[in-house]
Design brief:
Layout lengths: L7 H4 L5 E7 L2 E8 L9 E6 L2 E7 L17 H8 L6 E5 L15 E6 L2 H9 L10 E6 L2 H7 L5 E6 L14 H9 L1 E10 L8 H11 L2 E7 L10 E7 L2 H5 L1 H6 E2 L7
Parallel strand pairs: 5-6, 5-8, 6-7, 8-9
Antiparallel strand pairs: 1-2, 2-3, 3-4, 9-11, 10-11, 10-12
Length: about 260
Amino acid sequence: MIYYAYDYNWLLKEGGTIHSVRNFYGRLSVKQLGYSETNPDTHRMLMHGTIVHGKQYIAAPYRRITTSYYTESSGIGLALAHFHQGPQRIGGVGMGVGTIAAYGKQGDLVKFYEINPKVIDIASNYFYYLNESPAQIQIALGDARLVLERERPQQFDVLAIDAFSGDAVPVHLVTREALAVYLQHIKPDGAVAFHVTSRYLSLAPVIRQLADEAGYEAVLIADRSDDNPYSSHSDWVIVTRNRDFLADPEVVKKRVAIEPIAA
């Protein structure tokens, strides 16, 4: 079993950097750990400042492996596995390296909403999830909430909201009005999946309160799969009315109580 301990002081320096760019949204760097692109351990990471926004193993047989917060045992992994009944429509607010595209199958649609054009460039040119997915990939550039407000209902099976990592949270993406927009774009038995893994903030109680007010249930799925070398500890809040999903044994096993916001 292989585990990786990163020296982030080294990662933040030029060592391992194969691409770096800065724009209005900050500095993005692609780091490669390993030299041989055929070595199964060689992987690339996208960093926004000091925050890792996804990684991918780049040897051809390993490129479809989902990593970090998006593995099959994570909240988003469980949601996508459960709601896949025939062709599936998947939405993603925040692209990162495009890991969610690895879940797409022939006949599926995976649509990303991304505000930073440089992220799109990097995910398309330095990572393989987008280009090698058998699903149809669509990308909408712009502020996700504003774009979704203008679009017709997309009928997503799962809409992943993945914009809350680190200590800079776009607050307008986690409000009553924002949730109402998201819910307009999912199927009646679909789900909105919020990625809330953070060392700084506790967003699960906020999302639970918003879901309660909207008449939906919010379930926090904590993945602590230490036996998977590709996985990182993750927290996802799934907002849904799908009773079958909420009763799924894997969901029940990983479900963690969400404490309500103190009055």
